[in-house]
Amino acid sequence: MVYEIRRGGGILVALAAVGVMLAGCGAILHAALDPIADRLRERDQTFMVSVSYEIAARRMLGILRDRPPEGPRPSQKLGVLLGPSVLQQGVDPALLTKEMGGAYRWSNLRLPAQTEDNRRFAEWMYASGLRPDALVLVTNAGIQISDLDTQAEAVWYDPRILFDHLAHGKWELARADLIEITMIPWRYAFPYRGHVFTAVDRTLYATKLAMCSGRKSPFAALYRPEPDPYVEPFPVGPPRDDLSDRFILGFIGRKGWFDASRYRTDTRNYRQLVELFQIAHAHGTRTFLVLVPESTPYRERMPANSADPILRGFPRDLGAAAPLVFDYRKLLSEREFADVNHPNHDGRIVETRRLARDLRSALGLESAPAANGR
What we know:
With 374 residues, the protein is of the alpha/beta class. The chain has helices at 2-41, 50-66, 85-90, 93-99, 115-127, 159-167, 171-182, 184-189, 193-213, 242-255, 268-282, 296-301, 308-318, 345-362, and strands at 77-83, 104-110, 134-139, 286-291, 324-327.
């Protein structure tokens, strides 16, 4: 009996020692990663989805396959579109090519919704030898806000979200909620995990892309060139409903997009956007920026000054390198949205045709067939 008690006590002491050691390691990591967090993106945390990198890299390599830098320059000019999911759902590159009369061939190089990712990709794109004639950044005004994914770094989970999903019979979402709740201990133990995963994703991506971009590299299979980098299938999702709209608006609110005080020209994200357009301009690329359509509930929540840094700051700070801005925030009707933040298929056609019309005018292609729609 005494032996069992001593043995049990020994186990408890060992477990306590391990706990203290882990806590100490956690404290050291917390202290060590804090300055790294500030350097990465001014505490801009994101749970980086590396699949976006994969898509953009494969499409870029597909274009390089068709247009090798050492080969003759094709007569058909190249246009690239950068942006997150609002680009994927909002612009059809094949339709854009057709509506512009084929003078430009367009490809969607879809990326995460962070300014640093788009700027870095622009650097890698030009370093690979790709020289687009035109570049269009398709985005929300909220791209200027640094805390783009605070939920990924949050420690606690709001149980009301789970109850709401259960009450409305959203079983798959409820299952995802339960998985989310199991992450709470991990979040307490390692609150800066987003920094590490983001850094790892970017490092691996940059390394792989550098290897793949070399024509004689044996590592090209790390990224297989996209067979047709000039198409972007429309993602079919569930019908729009109030629950999903409330969830998206709540998520955007947690990002800080509805805070008028954060739309300034002295932020890191604004500087990243400025640098992106400076890089493109230095390589002779015509640049444009599309402020994507906003639904009425979304637009009513966005601050009136949300586009001011883009509309007023860019001309002042970039001069000749400033992109031409197409403001489509009021372009679509409510029936042309798949949810509160993304166009449906009809809205995509309207937005693409409007962009084709505006690009034709800006690029001096008025002889091309006229675009339909608004």
